[in-house]
Amino acid sequence: MSLDTTPFPSPASRFLADVVDGLTRSQKYLPCKYLYDDRGSQLFNAICELPEYYPTRTELALTERFAPEIAQRIGESANLIELGAGSGTKTRALLAHLEDPAAYIPVDISSHELSRCVRAISSQFPQLTVKPVVADYTGDWSLPRLARSARSLFYFPGSTIGNFEPAAARDFLAQKAALAGNDGALLIGVDLKKDPAILEAAYNDRAGITAEFNLNLLRRINRELNADFALHDFRHQAVYNAEEGRVEMHLISVRDQQIALPGHTIEFQKGESIITEHSYKYAIQEFARLAEDSHWRTRSFWIDPDGLFSLWYLET
Ligand code: AVI
Fold first, then answer.
1. Of 211, 213, 168, whose CA–CA distance to 44 is shortest?
2. Under DSSP, is residue 161 helix (H, G, I), strand (E, B) or coil?
């Protein structure tokens, strides 16, 4: 089964077509990009603070600890191109150590997120040239004309690469290698394979925020596409599929039911699931292989002492 898991919103007609397509398959699914409406983005930010959700704080600690070494590897005067608008502490920790960065270029489909990001970064680094690009970074876009010609350093934190199917991840990274050119670099955060109990706890938090994040997708479909999902008729489930090496988020129908969408009726049997997200986890050798297959050379990688998360510095 091939799933489109790119993390971006689309116009309403596309949204309806994707929902109908996903919900009429034998294994129902909804692309995870639709999890991120305003409320979904807020819930995701709350997830990042949860005690069970180790990736954010572990990657931040790695970035803070190794930023001087990373900066040394990158060298002088790179353009830092962040895929996704990060106004977060990880980007700032990195920028604080980069030697004379040429420009910071955040790429995001949401102009709202970009303005927030530009404000946050510019207030801490008033001298830095910031050139935001409004674009779906998984699609076709080009780098802005840069005042200073400098090498491209792509930055893709958060293990968002885990939300791509493996073949899509390879194509995406290869496209970035081509865009970065001969002298390019990539700093990327990658979540690691580990005890399934840790993984399942991270996606089934006790406060129920991930469940709310997952169910919010049905609320969004009701609001934007005039559907009639009753949220209490579905429950959140996240399981680690060891064979596929991924956490799967599901919404399980708690009874036999029919859902009305414009022009369609969708039947659910009790216990039937909708897959709403895949989050692939990599072993070190697996990600090294993925990097190589997508025309990147591994220069260095760093892992936290508990072996939870990895940060990779790659060059073309
Ligand atoms: C954005 N992405 C890397 C998160 C993940 O862990 O796959 C999204 C998420 N889904 C549930 N919790 C967090």
1. 213
2. helix
For residue 146, the model assigns a pLDDT of 72
Query: DSSP assignment, residue 33?
Result: G
Q: What element of type H or E holds 121?
A: helix 111-124
Q: Residue 49 has which token pair?
A: 């603070």
Q: pLDDT band for position 87 (50/70/90)? A: low
Residue of 54, 161, 163 with the most ligand 1 atoms within 8 Å of its CB, for mutation: 163
The rounded distance, in Å, linking the Cα atoms of 279 and 283 is 14
Q: For residues 263 and 159, give the distance between their C-alpha atoms in angstroms, rounded to a whole number.
A: 37
Strand intervals (E) in 167-263: 185-191, 234-241, 246-253, 257-261
Q: What is the pLDDT of residues 150-174, one digit of tens each?
A: 999 999 999 999 999 999 999 999 9
3-state helix, strand, coil in the chain (%, to 5): 40, 25, 35
CB atoms within 10 A of CB 9: 19
What pLDDT, on the 0 to 100 scale, is given for residue 110? 83
- Nearest residue (CA) to ligand 1, atom 9: 44
Instruction: Please tell me the distance from the alpha carbon of residue 273 to that of residue 253, in angstroms, as a whole number.
Output: 6
Look at the pTM and tell me if it is higher than 0.90: yes
The pLDDT of residue 265: 97
ipTM of the shown complex: 0.99
CA of 247 from ligand 1 middle (Å) equals 9
CA geometry: angle 47, 50, 56, nearest 5 deg = 70
